[in-house]
Amino acid sequence: MKKVATILILFCFLMPTFPGLASDENPKLVNYFLHWSITEGEARDLAKWDFLVLDMEVQENSPSELRLIRQLNPKIKIIAYISSQNLFDADFNSNEAVLRKKLAQSVDNSWWLRDEAGNRLSDWSSAYVLNITDFCGNNSSGQRFNEYLPEFVANNIMSTGLWDGVFYDNIWSGASWFNHGNVSLSGNGKRNTANELDRYRLEEWS
């Protein structure tokens, strides 16, 4: 968990709103805009902001518009949104979400968070939670998910030169509440105690 947390992890609700566009008289600082593609018109409006959070898929679906934003506002900071701890069933076969599909198809079966009966746990309709702790298993390359995800981001997102950083969504301060405490971090069929599930807390991260 610490490996993922060292970059930038924020908790927020998925609300891809596009509030009243900034005008010269009423400038806004930050825009959180999670459409998977953007039009040229949207790019010109988004360029008026100082800081943007855009979905990572924009680099695949609208690279020219992403470059246009930076051309119009060289001082802007643009960071890529990626979910750090769950995947939707649709992500495995989506042709509209290149990066999500690539990430999903790389997930090792030992990386899912499970209950004591071995069932995968869900935190959203048709979405399953990944085990971001050091207790999950390793893939064929010997990596845990919390080691693979930063590598995926480095090789597939930051390497493009289109982004200034990454927005990891989302993480909790503890997990004892999740699934009524029926969580087996190691996937060995043994339920963890509340203390074990809350072992890594936000205030303990360095």
Secondary-structure blueprint of this entry?
Elements: H1 2-5, E1 30-33, H2 40-46, E2 51-55, H3 58-61, H4 63-72, E3 77-83, E4 86-88, H5 98-104, E5 122-124, E6 127-129, H6 145-156, E7 165-169, H7 194-197
Parallel strand pairs: 1-2, 2-3, 3-7
Antiparallel strand pairs: 4-6, 5-6
From the structure above, extract its key features:
206 residues, alpha/beta, four-stranded parallel β-sheet, three-stranded antiparallel β-sheet, 23% helix, 15% strand, elongated, disordered N terminus, disordered C terminus
Roughly what percent helix? Answer: 10-25%
Rounded Rg: 18 Å
Output the number of helix runs: 7
Unreliable spans: 1-24, 202-206
Separation, N- and C-terminal Cα atoms: 12 Å
Question: In which order are the strands of the major sheet placed?
Answer: 1-2-3-7
Mean pLDDT: 84
Task: Report on this structure.
By secondary structure, the chain is an alpha/beta fold. It is 23% helix and 15% strand. It is built from seven helices and seven strands. The strands form two sheets. Strands 1-2-3-7 form a four-stranded parallel sheet, with no helix packed on it. Helix 2 (40-46) runs parallel beside helix 4. The longest helix is centred in the C-terminal third of the chain and has 12 residues, at 145-156. The radius of gyration is 18 Å and the shape is elongated.
